[in-house]
């Protein structure tokens, strides 16, 4: 499903609320995505380029090889620009955000055990880096900035979740610093993404060849959504956000043991115990947050405690008092058959992408230029 951003251009950011439609603006939309070489970033870029001829997408990330590979896979699309930079570097972010309309902040250290054993590095990237994104966006007059968060930010038990909780708070409060100008910050919070780097699917596929799959706890449940759903949510939020909200999609839950059975029905399943900082179940929305939450049908919106509230529409309704959206009490579940079909599609897509990468890999010579960073 393709979702289009409902505005295109407003620079410099105007004082007060901008009420006129910008759909007819002549200048193309310019987007910056931090951590843009990751799984979400590549899916997001692919969707935007497919849906818009007149646009520029700047990919901001640290790894030159990933940028090179991404430029290759996109056929050196002239609408695509690459910036080498770290979100820890505020000055570089300010430069990258020049003349940008929409920022999607996807850069983060995400691996739970690695964050547990490298806490200072996780804080520098996930917390200080998020503040840098906010400051740079305000200085550059970026109209809309959306941060990607995670269910692990809710009642966090690990350092990764704690850093993402802090990042959420920073983004919600960033609207206070923006003041009356048409500069707004919001978050999207969702569960595990099927097919993303670090997903358990590649691990289970490899283990299936040995006949033994390892899971940490047979009772474990998780929220799960596809990369396409994650991209849909961000694009929809770009058009809906008023500033300060946390958007939570309605997505199914799955049992990790069901995924193991779906991928290797005859394999032995060994329980190895939970990893450091790992939850048994995940929560996307707490009872405390429910007091400020509206149900918009396809997703929930957690309103900020401070500042102005959204003007309610006919499609909005408050959630029940004490409502909790948790992976183990969810009303929507993925069956073993559905998990098998999704896993087969993802494995097939991954193998096809690997084959394309081998076919297009350079055979000697110097690395081609990634293009002008403009």
Mean pLDDT: 86
Discrete helix count: 11
Shape: globular
Q: How many whole angstroms does the radius of gyration measure?
A: 21 Å
What would your notes on this structure say?
The two termini are 30 Å apart. The strands form four sheets. This protein has a ten-stranded mixed β-sheet, sandwiched between helices. Strand 5, helix 6 and strand 6 form a beta-alpha-beta unit. The relative contact order is 0.13. Helices cover 37% and strands 20% of the residues. With 374 residues, the protein is of the alpha/beta class. The chain is globular, with a radius of gyration of 21 Å.
Helix and strand topology:
Blueprint: E1 29-34, H1 39-51, E2 55-61, H2 64-73, E3 80-84, H3 90-96, E4 102-105, H4 112-117, H5 119-140, E5 144-150, H6 159-178, E6 184-190, E7 192-194, H7 200-208, E8 212-215, E9 221-226, H8 227-240, E10 246-249, E11 253-255, H9 256-263, E12 268-271, E13 283-285, H10 287-290, E14 293-295, E15 299-302, E16 317-318, E17 325-326, H11 336-360
Parallel strand pairs: 1-2, 1-4, 2-3, 4-5, 5-6, 6-10, 7-9, 8-12
Antiparallel strand pairs: 9-11, 10-15, 13-17, 14-15, 14-16
Short description:
This protein is an alpha/beta fold and 374 residues long. 37% of the residues lie in helices and 20% in strands. It has helices at residues 39-51, 64-73, 90-96, 112-117, 119-140, 159-178, 200-208, 227-240, 256-263, 287-290, 336-360, and strands at residues 29-34, 55-61, 80-84, 102-105, 144-150, 184-190, 192-194, 212-215, 221-226, 246-249, 253-255, 268-271, 283-285, 293-295, 299-302, 317-318, 325-326.
């Amino acid at each position: 499903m393709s979702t289009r951003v409902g505005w295109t251009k407003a620079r410099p950011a105007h004082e007060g609320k901008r009420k006129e439609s910008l759909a007819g603006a002549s200048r193309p939309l310019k987007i910056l995505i931090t951590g843009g070489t990751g799984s979400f970033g590549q899916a997001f870029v692919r969707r935007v380029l497919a849906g818009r001829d007149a646009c520029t997408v700047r990919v901001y990330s640290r790894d030159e090889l990933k940028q090179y590979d991404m430029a290759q896979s996109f056929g050196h699309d002239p609408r695509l620009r690459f910036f080498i930079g770290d979100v820890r570097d505020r000055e570089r972010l300010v430069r990258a955000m020049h003349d940008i309309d929409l920022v999607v902040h996807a850069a983060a250290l995400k691996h739970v055990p690695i964050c547990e054993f490298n806490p200072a590095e996780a804080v520098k990237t996930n917390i200080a880096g998020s503040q840098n994104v906010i400051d740079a966006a305000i200085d550059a007059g970026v109209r809309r900035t959306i941060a990607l968060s995670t269910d692990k930010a809710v009642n966090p038990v690990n350092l990764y979740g704690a850093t993402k909780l802090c990042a959420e708070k920073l983004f919600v409060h960033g609207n206070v610093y923006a003041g009356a100008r048409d500069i707004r910050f919001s978050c999207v919070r969702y569960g595990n993404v099927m097919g993303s780097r670090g997903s358990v699917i590649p691990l289970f596929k490899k283990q299936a060849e040995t006949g033994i799959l390892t899971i940490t706890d047979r009772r474990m449940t998780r929220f799960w959504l596809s990369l396409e759903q994650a991209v849909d949510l961000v694009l929809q939020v770009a058009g809906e956000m008023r500033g300060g909200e946390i958007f939570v999609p309605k997505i199914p839950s799955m049992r990790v043991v069901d995924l193991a059975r779906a991928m290797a029905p005859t394999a032995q399943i060994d329980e190895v115990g939970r990893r450091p900082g790992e939850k048994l179940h995940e929560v996307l929305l707490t009872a405390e947050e429910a007091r400020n939450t509206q149900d918009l049908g396809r997703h929930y919106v957690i309103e900020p405690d401070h500042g102005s509230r959204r003007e309610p529409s006919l499609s909005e309704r408050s959630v029940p008092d004490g409502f909790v959206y948790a992976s183990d009490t969810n009303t929507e579940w993925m069956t073993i058959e559905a998990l098998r079909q999704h896993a087969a599609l993802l494995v097939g897509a991954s193998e096809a992408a690997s084959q394309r990468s081998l076919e297009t890999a350079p055979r000697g010579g110097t690395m081609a230029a990634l293009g002008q960073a403009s």
